[in-house]
């Protein structure tokens, strides 16, 4: 299946995906990358789009209850949280591993000049 066909299926199955006439729209590159990761994991059978949509809706509902104004700028943050929840619940990885890599990424980003690629190094991971 092509990336375009997979994106069309996803936007049909998950009605909340921000889109225009050409398909999904993204404000920042990381949003497209998070979207692509979900497409690949769906294609590999990790979850159905129905399961994805329910988990995403739950994340959004809890965020709104906690004060998220839902102005559209946090949609892909919810998308990423959904991705993390499902890979944890499906046993692909653990929350602890996700936290470890998030910390390493933050550490690497802090030392990387703006505009340069972020490269994880062993020293980015806590002892």
Protein traits:
127 residues; mainly alpha; two-stranded antiparallel sheet; 59% helix
Structure explained in plain terms:
With 127 residues, the protein is mainly alpha-helical. Helix content is 59%, strand content 3%. The chain has five helices and two strands. Strands 1-2 form a two-stranded antiparallel sheet. α2 packs parallel to α4 and α3 packs across α4.
Radius of gyration: 16 Å
Spatial ordering of strands, largest sheet: 1-2
**Helicity range of the residues?**
55-70%
| Beta-strand residue fraction | under 5%
Main structural class: mainly alpha
Largest sheet: 2 strands, antiparallel
- Integer average pLDDT: 86
Task: Output the helix-strand order.
Answer: HEEHHHH
Regarding quaternary structure, what we see is single chain
How many helices? 5
- The dominant shape is globular
- Total strands: the figure is 2
- List the uncertain runs: none
Distance between the termini: 42 Å
Q: What is the gist of this entry?
A:
This protein is mainly alpha-helical and 127 residues long. It is built from 5 helices and 2 strands, in the order αββαααα. The model has no long low-confidence stretch (mean pLDDT 86).
